[in-house]
Design a protein that fits this description.
The complex is a heterotrimer of chains A (182), B (224) and C (203).
Chain A (H helix, E strand, L loop, with lengths): L8 H9 L6 H20 L2 H17 L10 H23 L16 H19 L2 H12 L4 H8 L3 H22 L1
Helix pairs in contact in A: 2-3, 2-4, 2-6, 3-4, 4-7, 5-8, 6-8
Chain B lengths: L1 H11 L12 H6 L5 H16 L5 H12 L4 H24 L7 H12 L4 H10 L5 H13 L4 H13 L6 H14 L4 H11 L11 H6 L8
Helix pairs in contact in B: 1-5, 3-5, 4-5, 5-6, 5-7, 6-8, 7-9, 8-9, 8-10, 10-11
Chain C lengths: L5 H7 L10 H19 L7 H9 L5 H11 L10 H16 L13 E9 L6 E4 L20 E9 L1 E9 L3 E3 L7 E3 L5 E7 L5
Antiparallel strand pairs in C: 1-3, 2-4, 4-5, 4-7, 6-7
Helix pairs in contact in C: 1-2
Classes of the chains: A mainly alpha (182), B mainly alpha (224), C alpha+beta (203).
Amino acid sequence: MSEFADPSDADVIARILAGESDAFAILMRRHEAGLLRFATRMLGSADAAADAVAEGLIRAYRHLGSLDDPGRFRTWVYRIVANRCKSHLGRRSAQGVSLDEAAPVPDPHDGEAELERAEQMTLVERALATLSPEKREAFVLKHVEGMSYEEMAAMTGERIPTLKMRVHRAREALLEAMKEHR
Amino acid sequence: MRRLALVLLAVAAPLGAQAGGGSGGARARLTGRVPEVAIAPVDSVVRAAEADDLPTEPLVQKALEGAAKHAAPGQIVEAVAAHADQLRQARTLLSRAGGPPPTAAEITSVAAVMVRGLPPPLAERIVTALPNEPPGPALHAVADLAGHGFAEDAAVDLIVAAARVGLRGLRLLDVATAAVHELQRGATHDSALATVRRALPDVPSPPKPSPAQVNRARRPRPGA
Amino acid sequence: MNELDPRIHQVLDGELPLESLPPELRATVLRLERAAQLLRAGEAPASVAGRVLAELRRPRTATRGRRVLRWLTERHAITIALRPIWSLALTAVLAAVVLVPTHGTPPLLGAQEGIAQFVGHFPGARSVDVVGPFTAWRSGVIPLRDDDHDGVWSAVVVLPTGAHEYMFVVDGERWVADPLAGRYVSDGFGRQNALLIVRPVGR
């Protein structure tokens, strides 16, 4: 079964820079789901998330040669997508568009447990949307994307104590918002 | 050429002399597509499988595949015979796990996973641990994990744990995908499994196709 | 805003075990962990890989041309003021374009059927087919299309639910295992087939 083991990100990048551009598909397949989830939580919209991630991946491909440490591709591409999300949010607040999207309509065939879960999901999503972009990013990177503080520091360029404080405040804000929206 | 002759003998001999008359189904589908010299031995394998109550469609498809890929006749016969063995093994495994006689679909499904390299004892462990589950998705989930370097026993434990908290069928594939994503995010194999286990039953499902995709979808016209 | 007991943060940061907290504080940790779980498990948007590949293959034009191209391809809110009779006519034309399918009647999907999307990057190819048991391993039954000639070929197909082996055949002769498949199986002929698992559309 080991014959199907995946090459590392650094190996794939070396192949791309050597001319095997199609190998970028491997990196996309590997990281796309996490990036889309991160962007969806940041922007509150699947369409906007798809735009931000697509733009981020295109930018990452075009600047692949400038990546100092190919082993850190993941944090680097997250940073690029985070910046795209900030741009989208900046444009959005200039246009005055609400962050709320319509709650998904539960399937009438869903059981009670599914309906309750859908309600809980809506509550959490709405609460997350009330956080400032900075706190939202901190919470999502730590608790949804599972990054360590070291990875977050590599990604954002901020110091670990600063990031810890931001995550702590984000947790408090989220709990508060969940109480208010109940 | 000698090798081909040996393969033909090995396949044809135990079955004795068969009248040359058409068997219908398989032979008709192979004619004009599979090299003529391979048709009789492949047909023998198919008839033997049929007599043994094994599904024959995967065998006919394997022969058509080999022909389409311009494989040598001997290779085609070998591949079909090997696949018949895999179907037999799959049926034995399912029967040993207990319960009603396995259906053709279940046998085909288990054989498909064993072709991925899942060791039979491992496959048997899953099938025995989840007697009320269709075997395919659970086995593919374990094969997905093993293919990414997860320890086989730990992979089985995770999938069984997922089934026990109510995840069924194709959702078990989502469990494997979640663990693989953890790995790709830099977790070790052990911590990836632990993270997913803690999250059960909440693992992401893949996006559903959009209405536009469904509208664009075409149906393949029935083939041979 | 209420500051949380610092021990809650320490547990969530992995610096203290949950068991070290009194029960009333553990509930807060669990509430946050539950929120994170829900956010992780939400439905993901569809893949953007095809779109990214298409963009990367697009020849890069001169700066001014690139700006124009970008404007043309980005989404914009365009307001057109029309006299009522013209807007009705436009709506009818748009409806006809959207609702009349281009490849015959859209399929009604059975309970044991799902959708498979095949995508491959083959610049310069004249034809790309997907072949598998669902085509009886014949080429030409499911051709992929590259309508905008950017080298990205795709097809969306109705297939029975379950596992399907397949390969792409480029220009009628080059057999390629889909690099985006993620699962591969030895074909018994010295190559590997890609393996796809089709789910029923409802779930």
